[in-house]
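Lab meeting tomorrow. Look over both lines:
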Amino acid sequence: MLLYFKREGRRFPFFYNNHQKYNKNSLILNMQRADQKLSKNERLKSRKLIQELFEKAQIFHQYPFKVLFSFNNFEKLKYPAQIGISVSKRNFKHAVDRNRIKRKIKESYRQNKHLLYNDLEKFDQNLRFFVIYTAKADIDYSIIEESMTQLIKKIMKKLNHVEL
């Protein structure tokens, strides 16, 4: 049977088995899954903000990524981090290939963003970062995910240094 629950003005589908009794724990689990989504507000789309990030950001490399990031504690945003992703047209001529790589990067970030969010909320900081894919070939998802976790750990380390 299909039910819906509302959150932030949106309806989310909630499935449960007719033979099982409906309980709130399963509803809470489904709401946590909705939190794992990479929403539109978490993406860095504003040309002005991207330009500002490229001018003033700190840079580091974590193969296969080049990362530009900056912390901000002035604005109170709904999500503590915003991410932008880019794959070079020079290295990947076909949009299908670029989009596949971007999907892999988004998914690896989505799976690991909770690590970053905990620290950002603890230090009351906002983060904007831009990930540029620098490898010349399409890399396996497991390597991208491992690199993304290392990237998040580096950002958290820099966040701890900013606060001290």
Residues 2-35 form one domain.
